[in-house]
Amino acid sequence: MDKDTTPPYLSLFAALSYGIASMAMVFINKAVVMEYAFSMTLLTLQQMATALLIHFGRIMGWTRAKPLNVDTAKKLILVSLFYNGNVAFALASLKGVNIPMYIAIKRLTPLAVLIAGLFYKKGKHSKQVILSVSLTAAGVMIAALGDFSFDMFGYMMALISVFFQTMYLVLVERSGAEDGLSSIEIMFYNSLLSLPFLAFLIIITGEFPSSISLLYAKSASLYFLVMFVLSLVMGIILNYTMFLCTIVNSALTTTIVGVLKGVGSTTLGFFLLGGVQVHFLNVSGLVINTLGGLWYSLAKYQEKLRKTTLPR
């Protein structure tokens, strides 16, 4: 779809749907892992649901996904591993980290990308970008000092998730593995390639078969069952709306929506699902972190604007 001919209402719908889906996913996953600690099994089932839905959609003619190609699958193996590493450690971190702090830590990704960029390319960034990501990092450290529910394991899991997300973004940027593939096809390959790796992990970590037994026992609770099914469905919706927003708008719009979503999620996180003890340090740190995220988005927007207005 040509961005220049996209109806304004579709562009707005794509941005809003991605923001809402992304925000909802954090709270739904948090609600599930509070009662079901087997995060790797949850991720496995999310990927299985995605693969099955797309497979049946192709059989029924609902999608135009191409048949599987071995060469394409080989190109996407590392991308899939880093993607699932990011999600797996993010789910693990949500067991002990409250939502505002989780979002604050995940905002360290731009800083990690900047550092990674020093090793694989010579591109320089503006002072505004460097200062904004530094402010974001400073906000995380200040907030952590006032986090009375500090969970070292949860923090480590969130930081490892940032590392995997950074590697995923860098690898996608460098490899060009997505060329010629639709968003549905990327989702399908990613899900299929994930299943053997995730099945191996849930076995060696001892989650299986205990995770299945607990899932069966928990299914008697209507609340848990609804949250669990929503988690499976939202995993599909989130990926789809992210690609849709990028296609009909731009990658920049998707980034900005993600930051604005984080502002709303941080605010709601103080009131929903508990786990937050309000203190001057953690509130001020989260405010600084949020301002750094907004400043980063503005700086990247200005960079993009300058590039598009330069004479060719």
TrEMBL record:
<dbReference type="GO" id="GO:0015297">
    <property type="term" value="F:antiporter activity"/>
</dbReference>
<dbReference type="InterPro" id="IPR004853">
    <property type="entry name" value="Sugar_P_trans_dom"/>
</dbReference>
<feature type="domain" description="Sugar phosphate transporter">
    <location>
        <begin position="20"/>
        <end position="297"/>
    </location>
</feature>
<feature type="transmembrane region" description="Helical">
    <location>
        <begin position="99"/>
        <end position="120"/>
    </location>
</feature>
<feature type="transmembrane region" description="Helical">
    <location>
        <begin position="252"/>
        <end position="273"/>
    </location>
</feature>
<keyword id="KW-1133">Transmembrane helix</keyword>
<dbReference type="GO" id="GO:0016020">
    <property type="term" value="C:membrane"/>
</dbReference>
<dbReference type="GO" id="GO:0048527">
    <property type="term" value="P:lateral root development"/>
</dbReference>
<feature type="transmembrane region" description="Helical">
    <location>
        <begin position="34"/>
        <end position="56"/>
    </location>
</feature>
<feature type="transmembrane region" description="Helical">
    <location>
        <begin position="279"/>
        <end position="298"/>
    </location>
</feature>
<dbReference type="GO" id="GO:0055085">
    <property type="term" value="P:transmembrane transport"/>
</dbReference>
<feature type="transmembrane region" description="Helical">
    <location>
        <begin position="9"/>
        <end position="28"/>
    </location>
</feature>
<dbReference type="Pfam" id="PF03151">
    <property type="entry name" value="TPT"/>
</dbReference>
<dbReference type="GO" id="GO:0005794">
    <property type="term" value="C:Golgi apparatus"/>
</dbReference>
<dbReference type="GO" id="GO:0080147">
    <property type="term" value="P:root hair cell development"/>
</dbReference>
<protein>
    <recommendedName>
        <fullName>Sugar phosphate transporter domain-containing protein</fullName>
    </recommendedName>
</protein>
<keyword id="KW-0472">Membrane</keyword>
<feature type="transmembrane region" description="Helical">
    <location>
        <begin position="129"/>
        <end position="146"/>
    </location>
</feature>
<feature type="transmembrane region" description="Helical">
    <location>
        <begin position="76"/>
        <end position="93"/>
    </location>
</feature>
<feature type="transmembrane region" description="Helical">
    <location>
        <begin position="222"/>
        <end position="240"/>
    </location>
</feature>
<dbReference type="InterPro" id="IPR050186">
    <property type="entry name" value="TPT_transporter"/>
</dbReference>
<keyword id="KW-0812">Transmembrane</keyword>
<feature type="transmembrane region" description="Helical">
    <location>
        <begin position="152"/>
        <end position="171"/>
    </location>
</feature>
<dbReference type="GO" id="GO:0005460">
    <property type="term" value="F:UDP-glucose transmembrane transporter activity"/>
</dbReference>
<dbReference type="GO" id="GO:0005459">
    <property type="term" value="F:UDP-galactose transmembrane transporter activity"/>
</dbReference>
<feature type="transmembrane region" description="Helical">
    <location>
        <begin position="192"/>
        <end position="216"/>
    </location>
</feature>
